[in-house]
């Protein structure tokens, strides 16, 4: 009887420990997924109709940003500013523009050096795909 009780106790402890370990590893996995975004300057060339535009965004420590977009044939970038927030659950950066109400821009964090721009408005389709990747400088 004593051996059965000790065996049952051991099985219970092993089960409890493995459940606790599984829960911790799931938490670690979700945390590591969201820890790759770094503040700084990201840039790249993305599609714009049949041509391409240069894009540079600076994420600052005070949660503000400056987005510079240079259209084909132009040397003067269009500049937008506002605030940004990082959604750890979605692993996305969301821009809130200072003077543009209908534009929605988010960035998926691909890895510690790359983000993918998703831009659109109420009238346009959201962009997506590797051709919209920006790289940290």
Concise synopsis of the structure shown:
This protein has one helix at 2-34; strands spanning 40-48, 51-59, 64-70, 78-87, 92-97, 103-109, 114-121, 133-136. With 137 residues, it is of the alpha+beta class.
Which characteristics define this entry?
alpha+beta; 137 residues; 8-stranded antiparallel beta barrel
Set out the fold topology.
Elements: H1 2-34, E1 40-48, E2 51-59, E3 64-70, E4 78-87, E5 92-97, E6 103-109, E7 114-121, E8 133-136
Antiparallel strand pairs: 1-2, 1-8, 2-3, 3-4, 4-5, 5-6, 6-7, 7-8
Q: How does this structure look, described?
A:
The chain has 137 residues and is of the alpha+beta class. Helix content is 24%, strand content 44%. It has one helix spanning 2-34; strands at residues 40-48, 51-59, 64-70, 78-87, 92-97, 103-109, 114-121, 133-136. The protein has an 8-stranded antiparallel barrel with strand order 1-2-3-4-5-6-7-8.
End-to-end CA span: 68 Å
Q: Count of DSSP E strands?
A: 8
Radius of gyration: 23 Å
Output the helix-strand order. HEEEEEEEE
Mean pLDDT reading = 80
Counted by DSSP, the helix tally is 1
Structural class: alpha+beta
Spans of at least 5 consecutive residues whose pLDDT stays below 50 are 5-34
Shape: globular
Determine the fraction of residues in helical runs and give it as a percent range.
10-25%
